[in-house]
């Protein structure tokens, strides 16, 4: 590997490693197939890159020698480019997956909670409707997680992805519990006849922060 390739390896974003990880399972896949697999696995615990990002990372991985591709032959009505991991790519991926450096804290960006945080400016009924909608979406996501778990069941090569999906199932169940508790909290505020949580002064004054 040249010094330029080594530098690029060190600069690889997590998305590149995720795409290479999708290629590490048996078989060759098109970019579209990689996107479908990301949508049915990665998005439940990390995120699913856009198809344009997947192709951009595939080009980068090919430049590094971590992936190789070939166009399908005339036996297919529509030519497709399929990608596979190389030996160098598998070795690099194994090294990255085994790094002992801190992986970093999980990043939570909860759009609903941002709206709740600004609940003093919103209609209480609208807030409750938002939470109800969030619960409905979460139930749908939970069903999708369980469908993916069923597909991974009894497939030896997918044993570790199945563990990640099992974690996702627990996370979605916890999200449902939190959402129901949030509805109860909102109902309690409504009973009290205020949109301002107890302990937070109305009117002027400093923000409710310690110190």
Topology:
Layout (H helix, E strand, L loop, with lengths): L2 H8 L3 H10 L7 H9 L11 H14 L2 E5 L9 E5 L1 H11 L13 H7 L6 H29 L6 H34 L19
Antiparallel strand pairs: 1-2
Helix pairs in contact: 2-4, 3-4, 7-8
Terminus-to-terminus distance: 54 Å
Query: What fraction, in percent, of the residue positions are helical?
Result: 55-70%
Q: Name the average pLDDT.
A: 87
Rg for CA atoms:
23 Å
Uncertain spans: none
- Overall geometry: elongated
Beta-strand residue fraction: under 5%
Main beta-sheet annotation: 2 strands, antiparallel
Q: Count up the helices.
A: 8
- The strands making up the biggest β-sheet line up spatially as 1-2
Secondary-structure content class: mainly alpha
Question: Quick one: how many beta strands?
Answer: 2
Helix/strand order, N-terminal first: HHHHEEHHHH
